Amino acid sequence: MRSMTMTEKILASHAGMDSVEPGQLIECHVDIVLGNDITTPPAIKEFNRIGKGVFDKDKIVLVPDHFVPNKDIKSAEMVRAVREFARKHDITHFFEVGRMGIEHVLLPESGLVAPGEVIIGADSHTCTYGALGAFATGVGSTDMGAAMATGRTWFKVPSSIKVDVIGKLPRWVSGKDVILTLISRVGVEGARYQSLEFIGPGIQELTMADRFTISNMAIEAGAKNGIFPVDEQTEKYLAGRTNKVWNKVVADVGAAYDRQITLDLSALRPVVALPHLPENVKAAIDLSDTAIDQVVIGSCTNGRIEDLAQAAEIFQGRKVHPKVRTIIIPGSQAVYLEAVKKGYVEIFITAGAVVSTPTCGPCLGGYMGILAKGEKAVSTTNRNFRGRMGHIDSEIYLAGPAVAAASAIAGKIASPEEVFVC
Amino acid sequence: MLTGKVWRYGDNVDTDVIIPARYLVTAEPRELAKHCMEDIDASFAGKVAAGDILVAGRNFGCGSSREHAPLAIKGCGVPCVIAESFARIFYRNAINIGLPMLEIGTQVKEIHAGDELEIDLAAGQIHNVTTGDTFQAEPLPEFIQKIVTAGGLIEYLKEAES
After folding, report:
1. Closest by alpha carbon to B96, among A153, A22, A21, A125?
2. What's the ipTM?
3. I want to staple A122 with a disulfide (CB 3.0 to 4.6 A). Which of A110, A144, A176, B143 is the partner?
4. Which of B58, B65, B68 sits opposite A139 (nearest CB)?
């Protein structure tokens, strides 16, 4: 039989085939279909045109998180449509305000995704679940609507790029610095229509939070998915979270990769992606004359407890710069509660930051921190496209939580080492 | 045969500029069309005529999975988009709503704003009436052609079932 990558093996198993190869068009069954408040209403419309019931009420996950708590009447109407659909079809996993989180933080945390699965979500950052050894990819509303009715979807099997991870992460360098550095090396379309497969001894040095951040931004290199193998850390993360029977998929020794990239973690530094593309990456320390107006720490990329812990370590005993507005958004209710219990929220408030309930809010220019003309923000979110967070003449600098927190204190882009030396 | 005037854009046109998130409180194509390309070209939505063709460089449609982006373009009456290359999710979404995409690689550099194009969608052939050039787009795989011909994924699924 043909030697296969992790992605090829998962797709073959879900297509009921012995093997698949890159470029092949296949039809797969899906284990989870996900949607949010922006993408689900049009998906419901398409679903209704098919005229069937849902394929499995336990395998559809609906998470209103983009414009919630509702920012205006129209967003309230959208969430109402999702809520009514969930009730009508008795959807098991519908997450209401107060019991929700940002979808890509919430699903892994709740044990709704597991290794070896095929997951499609009407949100481009659905690729986050590759961190758990699943094939997960973003689709649109029509795909979501069709899959809610049929439980199936079509794929073109992607070719794969092998990312060989070696070395150990230096102090203050985390998953965000890893993925931003990789994107700067391959470019925003360098992995277009391809799978990023992370392999190598360095993976064990990456926390699950680091891996979620890395897989989350695979799409920013144009990739279809970004996948990690299951190791002891993955198993530890899954224990007590999921009741699913899962399948640990390992790439064959002779699997064919389109190309290989070696990523030495020990050579990385805290970095920042400059406007207006995630590939415009520079070392944070080289940008220290860039004054900023706002800092956002949160999102599906960096809204986990480990991210808040990093920020809290830097904010402890320090104050947000008087000219900077700092917004901290825990990724889920569970993250928020843990941040309260561990004292992080007190540290943030004492430092002069605001702490919000979970929402995608500012990441996509929804609400909770829109930028005015000419303003600059350091943000732990995943995109710095023109106008993404507000006015088209505003600027977004992407960074990990450590750089973001350090910048909030310095009032300009700063590397954590600079703050600790002060 | 389609004929239309070219609106020309560069590389990495993302879904946030095709339809900014502040307008994603509706999925109605005609409503979305009013703000199509607003953050890259404020004049587009007001001036684009039904039948005009959108032509761009590499990685068109990168970013969000919002199907609102191809819906906004379709809502403007644009019958197809030509680019050097397309981002994966955008391409898939466009196919699924029955908006054809033609990928012609670096030859796209020979098409300029205001050029008049004649397009034979079935053959994937593009004739630039203004310059006299003719380009052949990469043919769509048969399965994808069936979806486009049916008018979109839902129509295709309904046909397959009946």
Report:
1. A153
2. 0.97
3. A144
4. B65
CB contact under 8 A, B85 and A366: no
How near does any CA of chain B get to the CA of A167, in Å? 31
Phi-psi bin for A343: left (phi > 0), alpha (psi -120 to 50), beta?
Answer: left
Q: Which residues contact A213 (CB under 8 A, 6 or more apart)?
A: A174, A175, A176, A178, A179, A301, A302, A400
Minimal Cα distance from A26: which residue of B?
B143
Residue A212 has pLDDT above 90, yes or no: yes
Beta-carbon separation of A42 and B14 below 8 A? no
Specify whether the CB–CB gap between B48 and B21 falls below 8 A.
Answer: no
Q: Which residues of A touch B22 (CB under 8 A)?
A: 365-366
Q: What are phi and psi of A27, to 5 degrees?
A: -115, 130
CB contact B3 to A (< 8 Å): no
**Predicted pLDDT at A422:** 57
Q: How far A50 CA lies from chain B's nearest CA (Å)?
A: 7
pLDDT in tens, A62-83: 999 999 999 999 999 999 999 9
| Chain B partners within 8 Å of A66 (Cβ) | 21, 24
B145 has pLDDT over 90:
no
Distance (Å, rounded) from C-alpha A22 to C-alpha A27?
14
d(CA A68, CA B4): 41
For residues B140 and B131, the answer to whether their CB atoms sit within 8 Å is no
Residue A246 in this model has a pLDDT that exceeds 90: yes
B65: contact with A, CB 8 A cutoff: yes
Cα A408 from Cα A354, distance rounded (Å): 12
Amino acid at A414: A
Mark yes or no for CB contact B25/A75 under 8 Å. yes
Judging by beta carbons within 10 Å of its beta carbon (0-12, 13-18, 19+), is residue A295 exposed, middle or buried?
A: buried
Segment A92-118, tens digit of pLDDT: 999 999 999 999 999 999 999 999 999
Q: Is the pTM of this model over 0.90?
A: yes
Residue B62: list chain A partners with CB under 8 A: 188-189, 222
Interface check for B162 against chain A (CB to CB < 8 A): the answer is no
Average pLDDT for residues A380-407, to the nearest whole number?
98
* Cβ-defined contact of A49 to B154 (cutoff 8 Å): yes
Cβ atoms of B143 and B153 within 8 Å: the answer is no
- Alpha-carbon distance B158 to A143, whole Å? 14
In angstroms, the Cα distances linking B90 to B59, B100, B129 are 10, 11, 28
Instruction: List the single residue in A with minimal CA-CA distance to B97.
Output: A142
What tokens were used for A37? 């408040």
